[in-house]
Each structure stands twice: as structure tokens, then as C-alpha cells.
Amino acid sequence: MASAANTNLNAVRETMDVLLEISRLLNTGLDIESLSICVRLCEQGINPEALSAVIKELRKASETLKASENCAN
Amino acid sequence: MATLDQKSPNVLLQSLCCRITGKSEAEVAHQFQYAVRVIGSNYAPTIERDEFLVSEKIKKELLKQRREADAALFSELHRKLQTQSVLKHRWSVLYLLLSLSEDPRKPSSRVGNYGALFAQALPRDAHSTPFYCTRPQSLALGYGERSAGLSASVGTSGISSLGVYTLNGPTATPQSLLAGQPSQSAAGSSQTLGSRLAWALPVSCSPSSALAPLAIRPPLGPPVPSSRVVRPRQDGEVSEATLVRDILYVFQGIDGKFIKMSAQDNCYKIDGKVVLCKSLRDTSSRLSELGWLHNKVRKYTDARSLDRAFGLVGQSFCASLHQELKEYYRLLSVLHSQLQVEDEQGVLVCTESSLTLRRLLVWMYDPKIRLKTLAALVDFCQGRKGGELASAVHSYGKTGDPQMRALVQHILSLVSNPILSFLYRWIYDGELEDTYHEFFVASDPNVKTDRLWHDKYSLRKSMIPTFITMDQARKVLLIGKSINFLHQVCHDRTPPGQITAASNSADTPRDAAELLSDLDGAFQEKIDAAYFDTSKYLLDVLNRNYLLLEHLQAMRRYLLLGQGDFIRHLMDLLKPELVRPATTLYQHNLTGILETAVRATNAQYDNAEILKRLDVRLLEVSPGDTGWDVFSLDYHVDGPIATVFTRECMGHYLRVFNFLWRAKRMEYTLTDIWKGQMCNAKLLKTMPELSGVLHQCHILASEMVHFIHQMQYYITFEVLECSWDELWNRVQQAQDLDHIIAAHDLFLDSVISRCLLDNSSRNLLNQLRAIFDQIIEFQSAQDSLYRSALEELTLRLQFEDKKQQREEEGQWGVTAEQEAEEKKRIQEFQETIPKMRSQLRILTHFYQNIVQQFLVLLMTSTDESLRFLSFRLDFNEHYKAREPRLRASLGTNWGRRSSNM
């Protein structure tokens, strides 16, 4: 599997590039690392609907938290 | 794919949480728990696993944001992605990206709400599930593998599958966590379904869930406020959204997941096992009727549209049904796209604008009525075709509902299109292009041209559309028939455009709808105009080129003995021929005599065309017949004229001629008798012994003359002239050939019946024949009487002459024996006189008997003119005095009158 991975390294990088580009096009707000995590999750058969819901929730939560922290500070 | 290391999803999820919130692992514990729950509970996606669909959606989204260039760029990138085989779940990734995408121009309005919600909710979760804080890796997110089979069997909807999972659990799922909190109800309505369910999950008890150990434990935190335990939701209930999706399929006649065609009830039914509240069940069953109606219409069109024998009218009916169905499909596609838009927005659905069963019920109300009408039409039109079909559709247009009427009117205009085009072809070109026997004019190809007018074309009563009246249909038949008659029989090659002015104007079935709406006006006008023009043209052609009226007059002059001088002369010339036995007559001799008679009389000035057709005909000879019995004039008819003077008509004419010829002969005979009497009266004065006999003869002869004169008067004035006058008036007023034919037939019929030639007056005719026979017999008796008398007279004169001569010579005038011989002869002659007298008496007796019987029959006849004839014949009541029967019947009729006199 490892040798196959090496030969496919370029392909993987390319794929990630393409996906990043699409993500940028769609204005998803994901950085390369989050994107790669998401892709991996998806590849494991996670429901993308749920995943997207989670991400949105997480963002909002962090925003509110930051906001409340700012207020507290 | 291999390079994407197979880390546990939980680990990945945790790092994702850290990454997004920018906090350390410990800090994001709550968020992580929430994420795990959401992911775990929404394992099966609610959307199609179709990469293409997702990519299309993305493109649409980009286009919606007016970023065409970006859309193109995306297609490019997507193609590149497709060439790589690294990703297994490309659609999944793309879908994720799509749902995360945001319109850069639109600031997210809901962030604040969500944020607040999340912030409030988190502490609560923290209370109830402190368990998860520590070891995220231990959480089993591989839950999908176990339940995959189950979820697949239930369908793609994550929501419904969730419902099925909870079936196993004994406790109810709170309908909404947020429903009890008024401050958050607004947020709740815009809350995503997934997250809401996720919030609810900890309270529900689902043994198959990975969260089971957590759920079994009683809540550790503060007791849940009672307001949060809301009305329990029924187990296994199907959500409305699922039903809507199902219904949309049912609308097209496709079985849904829950709503299926039930073969035994012949309707769509919701699966009985599905738990559903009654109102939803009712609504959806009401809606699913549409599917049934759709199937019905669809089945009809599918079955008929390929059936060529169904005909053009049927095809256009199917086409119009298709058109209606297309409209219906368009509506369905709009609904579908609405549903798709909701899917596209995924879980971010606003419930206010979403499809609900109630909305559908309202929206589908009109289509349902339309479909119902169509289905009823289809039912009603089953097994009908052609004009019958149009009638059926038309009868449905008689409704008070303007919308329905408009619909039926539209279908009718399409359906009647082919009929109208048949009709126009027929009335303007006389062509019948009715391959499938749909038009109401039928043509019999076996009929030859000589019977074209009478037999070739007929009306198919059942195919006359109800919006065309019988009168119009008849006119239509007549118009086309006239055109065909002109072409095929009259060999008239006038283009139809010159016959009718109307056909020049653009008369296409385009304006079928207009015509249908104005059947009594424009349509009637059009047909009337075509009828008038065509019929007039036909009559013109017949009169101008084929001398129809001249032929009619010729019939009267020659066959009905109207040309008196000609007939008299002909009879004079024929007399020596006709007294011979019929077997010795030769047609060519008679034809020669006819020619002579024509040339000698006014007939010679007649049209050569007519004289050419005049001919002699010998009827069938039976033994003992004389020439008088078999002689007949004939008139040859052919071509278009033969349509009026058909074979039957000519047969009638010959019978009438025969009768008239006989009556004429009697007149002729009586004239001869009278002539003989006048000539011989002076001569026979010298024979006083004859005076009694001669007187008898005179009386009988004048009786006969009176009878025949009255008969001739009746025939000529009461029968022929009256009927002829009627015929002529009718012919002058005739609008079409049918009128002329009808008038002519009527004329012949009345002549036949009043000349006692029909079956009902057979007795009268026999009496009349007997009278005629008596006249003939009387003629021969008188002839022989005169012959013997004249012979005797000449002998006597010779005797006297001889006597005189001898006396002049100075001899004895007569010798004794000569005188004795003379006396003996005279004696002998005188002895024959009583024999003659008795013969005459017998004749008179017979004759009067027959006349009396004839009068009795006349008296009892129903025809008024015949009763008048009897009055005329017995004007001085001579016969009444002799015949008691006559007296009785005369008494009833004339009693009052005679008493008055």
C-alpha cells in the first residue's frame, strides 16, 4: 500500500489542489488542513450533510465564544 | 486514497474541532461531543449519492450568484477531479463544499442566532453528558457499518430512518427541544433539522444507537423543566416532507414509498402499516387521486396513440389529451424543482416556503378538476371514433363551469379539426379522404356513375357530430355530391373555385375554434353559401347543357300525349298496323310511321335532341294481343338526365302512356263509330225496319261518348294538368337537384295513382278495362250491323236498278220468281234484325252493368276527384235510377243536396 501511496503522491496533491480551488470558488472558508480532514472524513463515509452542519455549528460557536470572551474582557 | 491515513473519525473530528475553533483539545470537548452526536445520528444522507447532480447544483448556485466565469472554472476543476482516482466519495466532498459555500455578497444573517443557541445549549449538554469530556477516541462512530443495511432498506432519508430507529425505543422523542422556549421559537423555526434532532437525541432512548449507555443513565443534572417535555410524538410517524416527496411521485402514477397503487381497490393507498396522523392520511389520499386520474388518461392515450385504425379524429383527441398532460407534467416539474431547491439548501430549509400537503392540496385543486374532466371524457369516449367522438366531447362542453367548458372547448376544437378539414375538402373539392370512416359522408365504391346521385353517397348518422345539425349534414352531403356529379356524370371540368366563391377565401381548419363558437352564424353561412352556389351551378349545367327542363316537357308532350296533333296523326297512321296481331308487327315499320308522324305535325319544330330520343317500343307479346296492346312510345334517357328520369321513372311513364293510349284509342274508336252513324244514317233511312236497331246503337254510342269524354276530361284536366302545374312550379323553385327529383317523383306518383294505375285502384282499373272492351265490342257489333245493312241496301238498290233498267228496255221489271227471291232475301234480312237487336241489348246491358259497378267503386273511393268524376259521369242520375246500390251510396253523399233541389 505504501509504494502505491508514493506513486500516487502527486495525484493526491493534485486532487487536494483542485479541491482547495473549488473550496475557494465556493467560498467555504476552509483552510487546507480543515479541508484535508473533511476529505478524509468524507472518504470514510461520513454523511456530508451532517459534517457541514457540524462545521457550521462549530464556527458559530467559536465566534460566539470569542465574542463573549471579548465582552468579558 | 491510501495516503489519506486511516485515522479514526473521532480523532479527525476532534482535530477538526480544534482547527475550526482554534482551541486546544480540552477546550473543545463540548463541541466535540456535539459533533460526534450529530455525525452519529445523521449517518445516512438525505440526498442522492449522485456526483453529477451535486456538480450541477454547484454550477447552478454559481450562476445564481452571477459568477458565470467561476462556474466554467468549476466545471474545469471538476473534470480534473474526475480524472483522478484518489477520492472514493467525490460527491460527498463536493456536497460538503457546496453546503459550506456562502454567497460572498450576502452576509450571513443567522450566525448570531445560531451562536446564541449553541452557546446556550452547550452548558446544558455539559451537564447531561460529562462523560465524553475525556476520551474522544473511545466513542464508536463506526455506527454506520452496523446500521447501513437497515438504513438502506428504509431509504435515503436520514430523517425517516431515524424515525425507524426510534421505533425500537420504548420512550418517546420530544418533538422539539426548543418548542417550550418562546424566546427561541423563532430560531427554532429556522433551525436545521439535523441539529434539532441531535439536540433531542440524548433524551431519546435508542438501544441501537452508539449513545446507548449514555441514554440509559438517568440524567445527572438538574431535573429537566417540565416545559421541555412536550407532546409526545407518535412512534414511527412518517414526516410530512416524506409524504410530499411520495405524493409528487404518485402524481405521475409512480408508486411512492408509502403510497402505493392498491390493485384490489383500484386506487392509491397509504401503506396501512405506516403510522400517520389522520389528517395527513386524509390529505394525502385526497391528493393521490390525481395519480389515479393521471393513470387513467395516460393509459387511454398510450393505448390509442399507436392505433392507426383509430383514425385522425381519435389521434387528435389523443394529441389534445397529451397536451393537457404536458401542462400537468410542467406543473409537476415545477413542484419537483421546488423540492429540489429545498434539498439543495439541504438542512437549512425554511418551513414557511416549503411544500406541505396542504399547500399541495390547494395548488393541485385546479389541475385535479381538469384531470377529472379529462378522465370523464376518456371514459365517455371509450370505443368511439370519428364524428361520434366529437359528439361525445361536445356533449361534455355543455356545462356551467366556464373553466371546464373552456377546456372541453379547446379539446373539441382540436378534435373537430380533422372533421372540419374533411368537410372543407368535401364541400369545396368534392373529395373524400376519409381512410378510417370517420366523416359523416360515406361513399360506396361499388356504385357506378349512373346511380351516383342516388346511391353512391350516404350519411353516416352515427358520425354526425352533435354540433352539426341534420339539416347542415344533409346540405354538406348534397354539396359534395353535386360536385362529384358535375365531375363524373356531367363531365364538367370547372375548377371548384369558380363554382363557389367561398372556397377561394382561405378556408382552413385553422379557424375551427372560431367556427365552433359560432355554429349558427358563420358556419351555417358558409355551408349555405356553398350549398347555394354549388346547387345553382349544377342546375344551370343541367338546364343549359343537358336541357333538363326541355326533356321534362318532352315527356309530357310525347309520353303523356300532350302534343295532340302529333298523337292524333300517329294514331291515324298506325291504325291499319295496330289492328293486326301483335306478332306480325315490326319495330322498323312502326319507327318509320313515327318519323312520318313527326314530320307531318308540329312535332317537327321540336329540338332535334329531343326527337332523336323518341322511339317506338313493343311491349311483351302475349297470345291474342293485337298491335294496340303492345304498342308504346319510348323516350331514351342517358347521362345526367337519367338521374332524374331513372329506370323506375321510365317504367312509370310507360305504364301511364299505355293507359292514356288506351283511353285515347277509345276516343278514337268512338269517333269512328259516330262517323259511321252519321254517314250511314241517311242511307239507311230507306230501310225503316232498321230504325229501331239504329236508334239503339245511337243511344249506346252516345252513352259511351259521354263516358269517355268525362274520363278524358278527368285525365287531362284533373290529373295531368294539375300535377304538371305543381311539378312545374316546384321545378322552378327548386334549389337543388334533389328537389327536382323529388318533385318529379311526386308528379309521377300522383299521376299513377290518379290514373288508377296503383294497386289500390286495381278494381277500378279492371272495370275501366271492361268498359273499354265493351266499347271495342260495340264497335265490331255496329260494324257488322252496318256491313250487313249496307250489303242489303246495295242488293236492294241493285234490284231496283235492274227493275228500272228492264222497264226502260220495255220488259217486265221483275219476274215472279225474281220477286219471290227478293222477298225471301228481304225476309231473311228482316229476320236477322231481332238477332241484332238482342245482341245490342245484351251489349247495352253488359255495358251499363259495368258502368254501374264502376260508379259504385268510384263512389266508395277515398279520392275526392274520383267522386267528382262519378258525379260527372252520372250527372243526370240515369244510373242512379237503375242501380239501388248506387242510390244508397249516392243518397248518403248527395241525399241532402238532391232533397234541397
From TrEMBL, chain A:
<dbReference type="GO" id="GO:0090307">
    <property type="term" value="P:mitotic spindle assembly"/>
</dbReference>
<dbReference type="GO" id="GO:0005819">
    <property type="term" value="C:spindle"/>
</dbReference>
<dbReference type="GO" id="GO:0033566">
    <property type="term" value="P:gamma-tubulin complex localization"/>
</dbReference>
<comment type="similarity">
    <text>Belongs to the MOZART1 family.</text>
</comment>
<keyword id="KW-0963">Cytoplasm</keyword>
<dbReference type="GO" id="GO:0051415">
    <property type="term" value="P:microtubule nucleation by interphase microtubule organizing center"/>
</dbReference>
<protein>
    <submittedName>
        <fullName>Mitotic-spindle organizing protein 1</fullName>
    </submittedName>
</protein>
<dbReference type="GO" id="GO:0000931">
    <property type="term" value="C:gamma-tubulin ring complex"/>
</dbReference>
<dbReference type="GO" id="GO:0031021">
    <property type="term" value="C:interphase microtubule organizing center"/>
</dbReference>
<dbReference type="Pfam" id="PF12554">
    <property type="entry name" value="MOZART1"/>
</dbReference>
<keyword id="KW-0206">Cytoskeleton</keyword>
<dbReference type="InterPro" id="IPR022214">
    <property type="entry name" value="MZT1"/>
</dbReference>
<dbReference type="GO" id="GO:0005813">
    <property type="term" value="C:centrosome"/>
</dbReference>
From TrEMBL, chain B:
<dbReference type="GO" id="GO:0007020">
    <property type="term" value="P:microtubule nucleation"/>
</dbReference>
<dbReference type="GO" id="GO:0000278">
    <property type="term" value="P:mitotic cell cycle"/>
</dbReference>
<dbReference type="GO" id="GO:0005813">
    <property type="term" value="C:centrosome"/>
</dbReference>
<dbReference type="GO" id="GO:0005874">
    <property type="term" value="C:microtubule"/>
</dbReference>
<dbReference type="GO" id="GO:0031122">
    <property type="term" value="P:cytoplasmic microtubule organization"/>
</dbReference>
<dbReference type="GO" id="GO:0051321">
    <property type="term" value="P:meiotic cell cycle"/>
</dbReference>
<dbReference type="GO" id="GO:0000922">
    <property type="term" value="C:spindle pole"/>
</dbReference>
<dbReference type="InterPro" id="IPR042241">
    <property type="entry name" value="GCP_C_sf"/>
</dbReference>
<protein>
    <submittedName>
        <fullName>Gamma-tubulin complex component 3</fullName>
    </submittedName>
</protein>
<dbReference type="GO" id="GO:0043015">
    <property type="term" value="F:gamma-tubulin binding"/>
</dbReference>
<dbReference type="GO" id="GO:0051225">
    <property type="term" value="P:spindle assembly"/>
</dbReference>
<dbReference type="Pfam" id="PF17681">
    <property type="entry name" value="GCP_N_terminal"/>
</dbReference>
<keyword id="KW-0963">Cytoplasm</keyword>
<feature type="domain" description="Gamma tubulin complex component C-terminal">
    <location>
        <begin position="548"/>
        <end position="879"/>
    </location>
</feature>
<keyword id="KW-0493">Microtubule</keyword>
<dbReference type="Pfam" id="PF04130">
    <property type="entry name" value="GCP_C_terminal"/>
</dbReference>
<dbReference type="GO" id="GO:0003407">
    <property type="term" value="P:neural retina development"/>
</dbReference>
<dbReference type="GO" id="GO:0051011">
    <property type="term" value="F:microtubule minus-end binding"/>
</dbReference>
<comment type="similarity">
    <text>Belongs to the TUBGCP family.</text>
</comment>
<dbReference type="InterPro" id="IPR041470">
    <property type="entry name" value="GCP_N"/>
</dbReference>
<dbReference type="InterPro" id="IPR040457">
    <property type="entry name" value="GCP_C"/>
</dbReference>
<dbReference type="InterPro" id="IPR007259">
    <property type="entry name" value="GCP"/>
</dbReference>
